[in-house]
Every structure is written in structure tokens, then in C-alpha cells.
Design a protein that fits this description.
Length: about 170
């Protein structure tokens, strides 16, 4: 039974990911992202991580995709923009510099964290201790990853804005 759930959830994830990349309509791409996120939530449930599955559905499939759809609708997908005209000429070189800098920070974090892989958080019998341990790890040891995720979400919103722009017909 576990194999069937794994295969079906994996098909959901791959089909949704392909839909995100291949759909021309940004609203359809966002709805394909929902399918991908639900498939990942099914994987979390299969692994026994029910909290992560709930967070996956509530935060990502709910709030984040609604934010993407809000941005798409706010910008209006029916308007056409001329993509050959660069509104800010310094934007692309600055994006390259920031991208290289963020990649360097991520690589540095991975290299520094290699020796810590395998160290687990000791789990106590009391539920409050687990929550405290999670909060301690999230806001001390993994604060960089937590903040990097927020930057990643901002970049995703900016990417959604760019995907909704269309070229003007001459």
C-alpha cells in the first residue's frame, strides 16, 4: 500500500511541476503548483510528518499560492508589456551579483553544516519540550535557512510578476 501511495503522490508532484513549467496561462501554472504542493503533503503524511503536511497545505498551497494568484490578478494578465525595453538598466547586473552572493552564502552554510548532519534533537516525552526544541533550532541554528526561505518567497513573487508580463504587439 505504501508503494501505491508513493507512486501516486510522485505522479502528482511530477505532473504538477510539469504543469507549472509548461502552462502558458499563469493562473493555470499556479493551480498546477497547488497539485505539486498537495503531492508533497501526501509524501509528508506517508512519512508520518503530519505537522509538516498540514503546514504544507495551509501555508504553501493555501497562503502562498493565493498570494501568487493575487499578484497575477492585480497585474492583469490581459495587458501586454514590451519586454525588450528594460525599465531599470542596472537591474540585470545587480540580479547577477545578488544571485552569486546568495549562492555563495548557501554554499558556505552547507559546508559549515556538513559536520552537524546526523546530530538530532533529543526528543522528550513532554510535548512542550519538543516545541521548545523546534523553536530553539529554528531561531538559532537554522535562522539563516528560515530567512533564506523568506527571501526565496519574495523572489518567487517577483518571478510571478515577470511571468505575467507579455510582450506588446507592434
Amino acid at each position: 500500500m505504501e508503494l501505491v501511495v508513493f507512486v501516486l503522490a510522485s505522479i502528482m508532484v511530477v505532473a504538477g511541476a510539469l504543469g507549472v513549467v509548461l502552462r502558458a496561462n499563469p493562473v493555470h501554472a499556479a493551480l498546477s503548483l497547488v497539485l505539486t504542493l498537495f503531492g508533497i503533503a501526501v509524501h509528508f503524511v506517508a512519512l508520518g510528518a503530519h505537522f509538516l503536511a498540514a503546514v504544507q497545505i495551509i501555508v504553501y498551497a493555501g497562503a502562498i499560492v493565493v498570494l501568487f494568484l493575487f499578484v497575477i490578478m492585480l497585474l492583469g494578465v490581459d495587458k501586454a508589456d514590451d519586454l525588450s525595453i528594460e525599465p531599470f538598466p542596472v537591474q540585470r547586473p545587480l540580479a547577477v551579483v545578488l544571485g552569486v552572493g546568495i549562492a555563495a552564502l548557501v554554499i558556505t552554510a552547507i559546508v559549515r553544516a556538513r559536520d552537524r548532519i546526523g546530530e538530532g534533537v533529543p526528543l522528550a516525552a513532554d510535548g512542550d519540550d519538543n516545541i521548545r526544541a523546534l523553536a530553539h533550532n529554528l531561531f538559532s541554528d537554522y535562522v539563516f535557512a528560515f530567512e533564506f526561505t523568506s527571501v526565496l518567497l519574495i523572489v518567487a513573487v517577483a518571478g510571478t510578476v515577470m511571468l505575467t508580463r507579455k510582450e506588446r504587439k507592434r
